[in-house]
From TrEMBL:
PANTHER family: PROTEIN, PUTATIVE (DUF247)-RELATED-RELATED, PTHR31549:SF259. This is UPF0481 protein At3g02645 family. The chain crosses the membrane at residues 128-148. InterPro entries: DUF247_pln. It comes from the Eukaryota. It comes from Cajanus cajan (Pigeon pea). Keywords: Membrane, Transmembrane, Transmembrane helix.
């Protein structure tokens, strides 16, 4: 059958299977894909079920020879190695009912819970660091605003001391007498 694993069909006594290419790294790739699929939140394990189907079909070397002759399995590995590969995968592929709300077998659920705990702790630390950084940044901004305000006030005061005749900035309110050496900055 042309297509991928989603094109597997059952018709009375005939199973239509896609072609599968196997090499020396196939077992590692299949195990990793099954593990990845079991860690996702999907309730249907399409790849794991197709691997489980192949494990059910392949029990002996004769089963592998039949599938190689029908060009369902394309491999340069020996038939014995392919039979051992699928017989070894049989125990690790679990597509049965899943306990609890999460996906995968019980071990995967426990691993998922541990990962969730680590994520919660990491998120708390990230939030705390973010708040500290935000506080430090706002403190620095407020410090520089106050510094700028003080520098402007100091510049106006120095200007008024050097040019006391300027009445726009250095004008004292009427009736206030600070003496000859005192200057004030008027709000008017």
């Amino acid at each position: 059958v042309e297509g991928g694993i989603s094109s597997i069909k059952f018709d009375e006594f005939i199973i239509y299977l896609p072609r599968i290419g196997l090499d020396v790294t196939s077992e590692m790739v299949i195990r990793n894909l099954v593990a990845y699929e079991s860690l996702t939140k999907s309730n249907c394990l399409i790849f794991a079920r197709s691997v489980k189907l192949m494990c059910a079909l392949i029990n002996t070397v004769e089963d592998v020879k039949l599938l190689v002759d029908r060009e369902i399995i394309e491999t340069k590995l020996s038939n014995e190695v392919v039979a051992q590969l699928f017989n070894g995968l049989r125990e690790s592929v679990d597509t049965g009912p899943r306990p609890g709300p999460g996906p995968g077998p019980a071990r995967v659920q426990k691993l998922e819970q541990e990962i969730k705990k680590v994520r919660v702790k990491f998120d708390r630390i990230q939030n705390l660091l973010g708040m500290m950084l935000e506080f430090a940044f706002s403190f620095i901004v407020l410090f520089f605003i106050a510094l700028l305000r003080d520098l402007v006030m100091l510049a106006v005061l120095v200007y008024c001391m050097n040019y006391p005749t300027t009445e726009l900035i250095c004008k004292q309110p009427e009736g206030w007498n600070y003496g000859s050496g005192n200057y004030s900055i008027s709000s008017m």
